[in-house]
Amino acid sequence: MIAAALIAVIFALQVRKAQPRSSRQLAFGASAAAFVLFALTNGLAMFYLDPNLLQIITMIGIALLAVSLMLMVRAYSQGEMGDKLRRAREMIAEERARTKQR
């Protein structure tokens, strides 16, 4: 429960860092909501509530994660992640250059 809540907080912080109204922001928001639901499910399970209710909440969380994944793919394909990809390529090139020098 604590881990899911902590992950939700991390995703919520990423929502604030992402560009407003971007697919990345929506993806991080959906992920944060999913992990809030997972934490809620774990908390409610301690009270021995109806398993069907817990299953429904978990299924909604899984659906939100699927939506989040699709939004991240959309952000990648629309070029929203261009800065991140460029920096990753530069870091890989630097590492290759260092490795060749050895």
The tally of domains stands at: 1
Q: How is the main sheet built?
A: none
* Rg estimate, integer Å: 18 Å
End-to-end distance: 46 Å
Keywords: Membrane, Transmembrane, Transmembrane helix
Description:
The protein has 4 helices and no strands. Helix 2 (23-45) packs antiparallel against helix 3 (51-77). The mean pLDDT is 88. The protein has helices at residues 2-17, 23-45, 51-77, 82-101. It has 102 residues and is mostly helical. The chain is elongated. The chain has one domain.
List the helices and strands and how they pair.
Blueprint: H1 2-17, H2 23-45, H3 51-77, H4 82-101
Helix pairs in contact: 1-2, 2-3
Summary keywords:
single chain; 102 residues; elongated; transmembrane; membrane; transmembrane helix
Short summary of the structure?
The chain has 102 residues and is an all-alpha fold. It is built from four helices and no strands.
